[in-house]
Amino acid sequence: MDEGLKYHEYSELLEPPARKRTLNWVDLLAVMIGIAVIYIILALGTVWLMKWWPNERVLMYLNAFLTQFSFVLLIWLVKKLRHWKWSDFGWRPVFLRKALPNILRIYGITWLFNIAYAIFLYKQGMSPPTTDVYTKLLGQSSGAALVLNLLLAGVLAPLVEETMFRGLIFGSLRTYCGKWTAAVISAAIFSGLHFQAYGFIPRFILGIALVYLYDKYKSLYPNVALHSLNNIIATLIAAKFV
């Protein structure tokens, strides 16, 4: 029996055909406003706390974990209010072994682009920032800090952000404006919310790559694998472990 046919039949046994669940424009706008409100409140709260608690590093970790936790609450609200299942967000079974070569190939392409982009900026007299949040957090090499960074960047962020930006936002946008327009918009939002001008283009390219994987496999599992791999390697490089 043809391997592709076996895979297709096995996929159908695992779950029924995916429902076309998308948010309407009002709900989608509400989610985007919710994301903006989360960032504004946490940013203002962090600035206020800095006046009373000068430990900037602890506050940055607190802000990062609270951001992901707030995203989880927003996703949970959508799930409960709209009676969605997790499969409606994109959590559908997939053979990761079959997807792995694609994941590694796309990861390699994104890193080649990152290197070319860094070389281009270097020739323009620009260098990576040393005072932004990500450099301060990921650049720590102590054991406890490395564990926290790997948990945050390598596990929590990929799970939550893929559900939010690919499963929810891209999954809804493509219904109204087409696949690639939705890919550009969702990737721009994903990259822009990291608030790092130097890394906007590489994260935007990563966002497009993640949309490609999601569209190809109709599942968030390959996305999380690529997102986690990218973040773990970046964390280890920043901490000078690679």
How much helix, percentage-wise, in residues? Answer: over 70%
Profile the largest sheet. Answer: none
What does the average pLDDT come to? Answer: 85
**Shape by Cα distribution:** globular
The amount of beta strand, in percent, is under 5%
Topology as a string of helices (H) and strands (E)? HHHHHHHHH
* Gap between N and C termini: 44 Å
Parts with pLDDT < 50 across at least 5 consecutive residues: 1-19
Determine the number of helices (DSSP H or I, runs of at least 4 residues). 9
Radius of gyration: 19 Å
Structural class, by secondary structure, is mainly alpha
Total strands: 0
What can you see in these coordinates?
It is a single chain. This protein has 242 residues and is an all-alpha fold. The radius of gyration is 19 Å and the shape is globular.
Set out the fold topology.
Blueprint: H1 3-14, H2 25-52, H3 56-81, H4 96-123, H5 133-138, H6 143-177, H7 179-192, H8 200-217, H9 221-238
Helix pairs in contact: 2-3, 3-6, 4-8, 4-9, 6-7, 6-9, 7-8, 8-9
Summarize the structure.
76% of the residues lie in helices and 0% in strands. Helix 3 packs parallel to helix 6 and helix 4 runs antiparallel to helix 8. The radius of gyration is 19 Å and the shape is globular.
Keywords summarizing the entry:
globular, disordered N terminus, mainly alpha
